[in-house]
Amino acid sequence: MDGRDEIRPGEVVVTAPAPRDAGLVFIGRIHTPWQSRSACPRQGRRDGPICRIEIFEPWVAALKGIEKFAKLEVLYWLDRSRRDLVQQNPKHSDQTTGTFALRSPMRPNPIGTSLVKLERVEENSLFVRGLDCLDGTPLVDLKPDHCHFSADAVPQPEDFQKR
Ligand SMILES: C[S@@+](CC[C@H](N)C(=O)[O-])C[C@H]1O[C@@H](n2cnc3c(N)ncnc32)[C@H](O)[C@@H]1O
């Protein structure tokens, strides 16, 4: 418990239900040219092939306004990954590294993210460049790369630089 979890005078605590694992609803499917992991790029490239993100009903209405954005953050479920590795030896490394220090698809909750370039929107499909996932990968979420309502909310790359 850290300082923020302390109960202050006047606050009321109830008996909460036991925490449960979160449930996900896949909102679509990603169509890419890649059928095998060996064929898939390790990270997407802005000049990569156009891939189609298909949105399922009833979520198509949630695309309203998305065409205003040039870049989107895509979250997907790397469904063909093993999930029990805590230390890994990446292919092009001679070191064993912890899973959370890697962007490997093998992780306890195999969520992949990519920043993609939005080329066009057609009905229930987004056509984008910059993906690196297998054909048929389930879609978890989509968001614009920045907040529409506040220019100050745009994260600047230097905010994240360590040196
Ligand atoms: C290194 S991960 C990076 C994913 C994402 N860009 C990220 O950084 O979170 C990309 C690799 O995951 C593997 N991969 C792609 N789609 C997958 C899927 N549906 N299930 C399991 N592995 C997948 C492929 O080997 C691909 O090269």
Question: What report would you give on this structure?
Answer:
There is one protein chain. The chain has no helices and 8 strands. The model has no long low-confidence stretch (mean pLDDT 88). The radius of gyration is 19 Å and the shape is globular. The chain is mainly β. Strand 4 and strand 5 (97-98) form a beta hairpin. S-adenosylmethionine binds next to strand 6.
Mean pLDDT: 88
Number of continuous helical runs: 0
| Strand/helix succession | EEEEEEEE
The gyration radius over C-alpha positions equals 19 Å
Oligomer: single chain
What percentage of residues falls in helices of 4 or more residues?
A: under 10%
The tally of strands reads 8
Q: Which structural class fits the helix and strand makeup? A: mainly beta
Q: N-to-C terminal Cα separation, in Å?
A: 32 Å
Query: The biggest beta sheet, please?
Result: 6 strands, antiparallel, barrel
Ligands and ions found? S-adenosylmethionine
Shape: globular
